[in-house]
Amino acid sequence: MSTHRQSGRTKGTTRSSRFVSNYGMLGVLLLLCLLFAVLTVDEQHPTGERAAKTLARALKESSDATAAALQAGGVLIISRESDEARLFSRSLEDALSHGGYSRVTAISGDPAAIRSAMERLAGAGESFRLIATTEPFAPVVRAIASQIDAFEGSRIVTPPSYRWPTFLLPNNIRNVANQISVIAIIAIGMTMVIITAGIDLSSGSLIALSAVVAAWLIGHMGGESASALMMCLGSLGGILLCGAVGAFSGFVITEFRIPPFIATLAMMQVAAGLAYIISHGVPIYQLPEGYVALGRGVEPLFGIPYAVMLMVVLYIAAHIVMSRTTFGRYVYAVGGNMEASRLAGIRVRLVLFIVYTLCGLLAGLGGVLMASQLRSGAPTYGLTYELYVIAAVVVGGTSLSGGEGRIFGTLIGAFIIAVIQNGMNLTNVESYTQKVVLGLVILGAVLLDRLKHQRFRFRRG
Amino acid sequence: MTAPHSSDRTLTPLLEMQGIRKTFPGVQAVSSASFDLYPGEIHALVGENGAGKTTLIKVLTGVHRADAGAMALSGQPLEIDTPLQAQRAGIATIYQEFTLVPHLSVRANLCLGRERTRRGFMDTAFERDKTRSAFERLGVSIDPEALVADLHVAQQQLVEIARAIATDARVLVMDEPTAALTPREVEGLFRILRELASRGIGVIFISHRLDEVLSIADRVTVMRDGVTIGTWDAKTLSRKDLIEHMVGRPLEQEFPKVPAPIGETCLEVRGLSGGRIRNVSFSVRHGEVLGLAGLMGAGRTEVARLIFGADPKESGEILLDGRPLRIESPRDAIRHGICLLPEDRKLHGLVLKASARDNFALPNLRSWSRAGFIDQSHESSRFFHHVEHLNIRVSGPEQPAGNLSGGNQQKLLVARWLESNSRVIIFDEPTRGIDVGAKFEMYLLINDLVSSGKAIIVISSELPEILGMSDRILVMRKGAVSGEITDIGSATQEAIMALAA
Hints:
- The complex is a heterodimer.
- Chain A is mainly α.
- Chain A is 68% helix and 5% strand.
- In chain A, helix 7 packs across helix 13.
- The two termini of chain A are 32 Å apart.
- By secondary structure, chain B is an alpha/beta fold.
- In chain B, 34% of the residues lie in helices and 26% in strands.
- Chain B contains 18 helices and 24 strands.
- In chain B, helix 4 (124-138) crosses helix 5.
- The relative contact order of chain B is 0.11.
C-alpha cells in the first residue's frame, strides 16, 4: 500500500495549493475591503443602545462633584421618532435611573413636537441640568433650548463619537450583503450553466418576469390584504414560471442543438416581453406590507438580513451538490468534454436540461426577492442584471470554456463587485467612473485566471 | 557521433543543429541534440513520446528559443526567434493539426498572409496563378475554389504542402503526416515527398509508424530522453534495431501474446447496419481477442460505436451470452457490460481538465452513491486499488487527466471499465500515441483481461499489432466485413491487405 501513503501526503499539499488557485480571489476581496476600510475612516456617531451605553459611561466618568450635581439636577432625554432613537431613549433612561439620577424624563418626536413638549415642561416649572440627545439631532435641540429660558442653563450632551471606517459599519456591511443577494443567488445557477460551457442570457429578464408574475398573482389573491399563504403561492408561481422558461431553454438547447447563447438570447426577449404584457407596462404595487419581510427583514438575534441568510443557505447547498453528488460531478464532466461524458454513459442532455431549469428557478427566486425588497413588481427590474451575474461568475474564477469553476468562487466574485460599487459610493466616485472601474476589474480578473493557467502550458514533446 | 554514419556526401548540409538544449521550468526537454539535413534528403526523426522530438522541431521553427546550441542553414549561421523568421529562412512546417482556415477556399488558404492587392482590391488572378503553379509542381489536381472544409484530410494535407512549396521552402518539416491517411494516400504522399527531395528540398519526417519511417527515410535519427542518440542509414536498420535504440534496451519480444482458454460465444452481432455500415455480423468468445483490421474509413470505428450505442443503428441484433440486448445509448451498453476505449482518448475518452480520479469514477458513480451523494472514501479506495493493480503512474487522485502520459491515460480508462465489470471491451487503436514501453504493458493487460474470461475486440491500423495480439482477425472494407482470418499462425500482412484493399 505504498502508493496509498505516498499520495496521502501529496494530497495535503495539492489541497492547499488548489485552495489558493480556486479561491485566490478571496485575497483580492480582502484587499479591496482593507482599501475601502482605510479610505472611509471617519468620525462615527453611535446610535441606539450602544449610544445610550457610551453616553451613560461618559457621564459616570466625569468627576465626583459634578457627577453628584448632575445626578441631582435632572436629565431630559430628547430623541427623534424612530426605532433606533426610541431604543437610545429607552436604554439611556434605564441606565440613568439605575445610575442614581433622581429625575429622568424622556420626550421624542419631530422638532415641532419637541418644542411644544419642552415648552410644556418649562411651563410646569421643570428645569434640567442636562439634556441628552443624539449627535445628528443636537443642533435642533440646541436651537430650541436656546429659545426657552428654562433650558438656557442646561448642558446638552451627546454620545461621544469615535473614529471608524464607514465601510466597516455593521449597517454598511449588511447593506452590501443585502444588495448583492439577488445577483449572488442567480449566479449560483449561472455558475452551473457556465461550467457546462453554456451561458444563460435570460436571467435578467426572468427577474422582471418573476417579480411581475408574483405581484400580479398576489394582486389577484387579495392584493394588499393577501394572506401569508397567498404571498407564498404567488411568489412560487413566479419562480415556477421562470423555471419553466429555463426548462424550455434547456429543451431547445439539448433537443435541437441550438447554441445556448442563441436560445437564451431569444428567451431573454420572450421573458421581457411577457413581463410587459402581464403588467401592461406599469409597476404593480398592490402588495401587502408583510411582503417585504423576505427582502428587507432582519433576523432579530444577530441582525442578519433574511435575504442574506437565504443566499448563504443556497450557496452551501449548491456547494454540496457540486462537490459531493453525482449530479455535480456530471455537470463538470459534461462541461469538460461532452462527448467523452456521453461515452461514459452519462445522460448529457438530462444534465443540461436540469442545469438550465435550475438557473431559471434561481432567477425566478431572485425576481421574487427583488419584488419583496421594493414591495412591487415592475417589468423594468433586472435590466442588464445577466451581465452582472455573468461578471460575478467570471470574476469568481469559472472558465467560460467550461469544465471548471467553484460555487464559492462565484460568491466571492459577487462580493467583489458589490464591495467595489459600495466602496466607490462611499468615497464619492462618480457613477460613470464606477462603470469604467468595474469593467477593468472584470477584465483584470479574467487576465489573472489566464495567467494561472499558463503555468501548466509547457510539456515535453 | 558514435553511430554508423554511411553518408559519403561531400555537399554542405542544408541544415545543421549542434548541441541544442532547451529547458522548461522543471523539465529538461532537450538536453543535447544534434541533427543535420542534406539537400534532397528525407531524414526521419523518431523517439518515444517525451523524447524531445517536438521540442527540437519547435526550436527549429522558431516556436521556442534554444537555451544553448547553434544552427546553420547552408553553412550560414542561423538565428530564429519567431515562426515568421523560420518561414522567411525557407523552413516550412506541417503540423499534425492543420493550420488551414476551413471556411476559406483552397486558393485563399494558400495565399493567406501573402495576399497582393491591385487598386486596393485583392489580386485574385495572381492568387490563382500561384495556386495552380504550386499544384502543378506537386502533380495534384484540387479545385482552387473549393472550400478547405469540403476536402478530404489527405487533400487538406496537400494544400498545406502546396502552401509550403509556394513560399519556396527549402526545408520541409512534417510532424506525423501519415496519422490520418489511408495506405493509398500514404503512398501518394511518399511519392510527392520523393519528388520534392529529388528537387533538392530537405524533408524532416517525424512519425511513430516505424515501418513507414524505414521505407521513406534515407537516414533516421533517434531521440531518447532529450538526447539525439544516433543517426543511422535507413537501409541498414531493422525495425527491431530501431525500437531497441528508441527504448534503450534489448527487446526480447514485441508482442507478448499468451493465448487464453477460449470459452462460449460472449458477444454476437447479427446484421448490424447504420451510417456507412452495412450488414455486419460476427461474434467474439470469452477469452478471445478478435482483431478488427481494415483501411482507415473502412468502418471499424463505426462498428464499435454502433455496438456501444454511441451512434444510432438502423437494424441488426446484438446478443450477449445468447440474450438479445436493447442498446440505444452508451449508457445501455455500459449497463450490459460492454465498453469502448475510443481511438481519440482526448476527444472522446477523457475529461482532460478533470482529475484522474473523477475520470476513473465517471461511469461508476451511480453504483457508489446513495441518494445522489458520492461515497468518497469508497471512490478513493477503488481508485487506489486500480492504480496499484494496473501500475498507473499518477501523482495523486487530483492530477488532471490531461497531464498524464498517453499510456497512463489509456490505463486509467481501462481501470474505469474494469471497475464497472465490463465483459466485452472494445479497444479502438489501443496503442496509438503511446510509448513502446507502455505499449508492451497494454499488451500484457490484454492478456490479463482475456485470461479472466473477458471478450476483447482490438481495432488497429498497425498490422504487426493485429497479427501479434489477435486470436482471430476480421477484415473490413467499405463498411462491410470482407473476410476473416482464423489461422492466425500462418496469417500475413499481405493476406490482410488483400482483403482490406
